[in-house]
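Task: fold both queries, return tokens.
Query 1:
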Amino acid sequence: AKLRVTSNVPDVRVLYKGKLLGTTPTVIDSLPPGKSAKLKFERTGYDSKEESIELPEPGKDMTHSVSLSMSADYGSFKIISQPAGAEIIKNGEPIVGKNTPVDEVLVEAGKKYTFLIRKKGYQTVKVDSRVARGERNKLIEVKLVVGGSVTITSNISGRVTFADPKAAVCSGKLPIRECGLPNGTYKARFEGAARATK
């Protein structure tokens, strides 16, 4: 017997007696046909659910849909960029397989998140934000401007100061990571420990 399991959110884990059978959407054929099976459905950021399902007879198939509710301890962002197709880096980690627009980025409520939104040929945009408990799809919308980004690191601690006012936003303590700038050539002064300069 085949049991097709779908859900209102993707990648819900389907468990039977503590054993993972797959993640939605999935087809399960390892359960005893014609019997009742108690399945548990889990996904990070959502309240888990248990349901008893009457399985079809041998050779038959059926579809079961499960709906999970977001946990009150979580929230989510909706991220849009103009133009679309930008990568999203959340707290230093790329969100794999998701380019803007992204309908739901699940996060812990009350915690500060830093998003870098970047696309080749455009200035990287940095956004710091947080969501309240249970808040869904808080909108982050950015307009990307032609340019690029600069990353500066050093073998000793210090800070960098840009002479050009257009680049002042990138002045500060090192390391500086993916600070968006218009295309151009810039002069920067490094001042570090033991009067090191460059």
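Query 1 returned. Query 2:
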Amino acid sequence: NQKYLFEANFRADASSRFKEGNRWGYFPGFSAGWRVSDEEFLKNSEVISNLKLRASYGTVGNDALDTYFEYQALYSLGYNNAGEPGAIASKLTNPKLTWEVNKTANIGLEFGFLNRISGTVEYFDRGSSDLLFDVPLGLSSIITTITQNVGSMSNRGVEAQLNVDVVKKKDFVWDVQLNITSLKNIITKLPSGLPITSGTKRLEEG
């Protein structure tokens, strides 16, 4: 009767950007909900029109890289010496390259009172691991970066939304909505704890 809800899914993705052995990524997810307001002890409440608890957890992979064969050593043509053709290395090989993984969990409460006041309160936590970064190799290198899985990051916070029907008539409705979000974004791990500088941006733990 739509009182207890559960959903599960599973993804298996492959990408030519990673070498065989690291090519496949497996990403599960699930969600669950409980409509408390449909239970017998609240079903006939004149005050509580909606009350629902929900939670979910899921993972997804990211392979957003510059080329379709990112793990391979790549070369750029056009560096000719007089009549002799020439090429130069443009990307270093990295056979260990693999999926960046985003893991997201949240728990929320949906509520409604008197059929005029409604809203949600939700806590979310998204962690990213094996982050795909172009790691600097130094200005003296012919190739200045190498793509690696080098760290992890955390995004967590609370989001709340409140809706109030100030006027609710047959031919006219006036409602007010308020939305508040708190977000904290932290890099939790980098290789050897060293910062990464890219252009005007500096990335470091914490």
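Both queries returned. Flag for query 2: The CA atoms of residues 15 and 23 lie 6 Å apart.
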